[in-house]
Amino acid sequence: MSIVQSLYDQNKYFRSLAQKLGFGRPINVELLSSRLVEYPWTLSNFPFKTAHNVLDIGSCGSQLPIMLAGMGLNVWTLDIRKYEYADLSNNLHSVIGDITKTDFSDGFFDIVTAISTIEHIGLGRYGDIIDSEGDKDAVREIKRITSIGGTLLITVPFGKRCITPAYRVYDKSALFSLFKDFDIKSTDFFINSGKLWIKAADENQVENIDSSTKEMATACLRMINAKVQPDKANE
Fold first, then answer.
1. One domain for residues 80 and 93
2. Which of 11, 29, 35, 185 is buried most deeply by CB count within 10 Å?
């Protein structure tokens, strides 16, 4: 837990000040949060020239959707909780719902982002329905609502495979199995060194990292929704 979060939880004067500044819920700021590398990675891999309809999944508390909307993109946010910045842009559309089952039409989105979200789905941490297959159900629905040739940018905890009460940690086998129906174009890995996040050379550098109590490594994947599912292409 970060110093800021601890102050919010334990000091009523700090909490009162934070709330006056607009933080109506726990600040949840971690000085070594993986967002420090995930957001820049997402923006550097974002295909702005082909973006028309963009979906961000697990948006509550994220500044990414409002940044993308501020760049003129049509952005939808999807979370089981309300998106705090929904009223800041006319081209930002906030939907409260479940990514495992949506009302979006087939192939509606050109770009889908899911930043540190997939690993939580189905574990009940944020009030969602407990479902051991939640992450797989979410990925199937993402494939349905993403256009053929559309881009998916996702980040998840990586290292020794495990499931905690709050999130899943994926190893190489679990990660590529989860996204087997997408064409994976690039994968980047980052390590929490204790002082800052650094980029790993490859998955071998992070595969034995223990993220069971705190996220110490993250995987970032850029994928294309293939017309023919990659695992069935040779059948």
1. yes
2. 35
